[in-house]
Write a structure and sequence with these properties.
The protein contains 11 helices and 12 strands. Strands 1, 2, 3, 4, 5, 6, 9, 10, 11 and 12 form a 10-stranded mixed sheet that branches. A two-stranded antiparallel sheet has the order 7-8. A hairpin with a 2-residue loop joins strand 3 and strand 4. The C terminus is likely disordered.
Length: 350
């Protein structure tokens, strides 16, 4: 079902030495957990119940690179490439997926991408989202909803115990990933406010995840068809792990971060080949893990007929069967003898 298909946006770092590799610079990357010399790639992954794989990528160029024409020329960066923030790169990938007809209903991403630019683009496209935001992000409820106002952190701190419920964000390596969740509907809006001719009501909300271990919280701005259950939003947020798993597998097994080329084109070609290999492995895994096809009634009937023919042939070739048949032939009744001679043989049609 399309409603279960989603895109996941995230970034990863490629640790580098020197200054010649395209886009390299001192910048933060979660791969190292600190500011270090690296390239940053923004990726889009496609996730469903059948598996997940990368579908798009873009190399982030820091402002220092864009302001240095000599450096851009040396790395063969296309002249039309201007500065683009990571959210802007993500927005372009989402738009390319929509233009290509990729069937998806949701987008999930961390707080780097929970900005109004992506929110508005997804609302205009009629896509739901669960996007991370900072604790200091402010939220306000509109008329018709319970009164809510303040930062995400303050709102979470003021919730009653009954507002929380424990739900699994999906299966992890150690089993279900349980957290405490709270969901606040903030406003109901008509779809045609963002897409001309669209119908239906969509809800803007705030989803909060709390760790049972230490009470730390994560916050998400949401957009979904009115009436969407919290379990659905939790499931979408829980799919963000798929791109993290994809990064780990692509680096460890397919050499995603083993690119030695320094040019713009070299980076994109290497990454594209790794993405293709990952997609092939995902397809092979899905087919290998699929349950065997159920035998249909026609197949079962054919198997019975083949088995019946086999038994008939074995019986005809058996000497004991022939002797037994000969000894049991009638000898005294002409009528029966005539019937036996004139009766057509039984034919098995296969």
């Amino acid at each position: 079902m399309t409603s279960r298909l989603l895109q996941v946006i995230d970034e990863t770092g490629f640790l580098k030495q020197g200054k010649a590799s395209c886009g390299v610079g001192r910048q933060y990357t979660g791969s190292a957990g600190k500011i270090t010399n690296c390239q940053i790639g923004v990726f889009a992954a496609y996730a469903s119940r059948h598996g997940h794989a990368f579908i798009d990528r873009a190399l982030y160029l820091p402002k220092a690179w864009i302001d240095d024409p000599t450096r851009l020329a040396a790395a063969h960066v296309p002249p039309e490439m201007g500065f683009a923030t990571k959210p802007r790169l993500a927005k372009r990938m989402i738009e390319r997926a929509i233009a290509a007809g990729v069937p998806f209903a949701w987008v999930a991403a961390d707080s780097v991408y929970g900005v109004s630019e992506i929110e508005m683009a997804l609302r205009r496209a009629g896509k739901g989202y669960v996007l991370g935001v900072n604790a200091t992000q402010t939220f306000n409820a509109w008329i018709g909803k319970p009164e809510v106002a303040g930062t995400a952190e303050a709102i979470a701190a003021g919730l009653a115990p009954s507002a929380w419920q424990r739900l699994s964000a999906g299966e992890g390596t150690r089993g279900p990933r349980f957290y405490d969740w709270a969901y606040l509907e903030l406003a109901d809006l008509d779809a045609d406010e963002y897409r001309e001719g669209a119908t239906g009501t969509w809800t803007r909300g705030l989803l909060i995840r709390r760790s049972p271990a230490d009470g730390s919280c994560a916050y998400f701005t949401t957009w979904c068809p009115a009436g969407t259950a919290i379990e659905r939003l939790v499931a979408v947020e829980g799919q963000r792990w798929t791109i993290e798993d994809a990064f780990e597998t692509a680096k460890n097994e397919l050499g995603l971060d083993h690119n030695e080329s320094r040019s713009w084109h070299g980076w994109h070609r290497h990454v594209s080949l790794v993405m293709l290999a990952f997609a092939m492995l995902a397809t092979i895994r899905h087919r290998a893990n699929a349950p065997p096809p159920q035998k249909t009634l026609i197949q079962l009937t054919q198997m019975r007929r083949i088995s019946s023919v086999g038994r008939s042939k074995r019986s005809a070739a058996s000497p004991s069967a022939s002797n037994s048949d000969a000894s049991s032939q009638p000898t005294s009744s002409p009528g029966r003898s005539g019937d036996a001679l004139t009766k057509p043989p039984h034919v098995v049609h296969t």
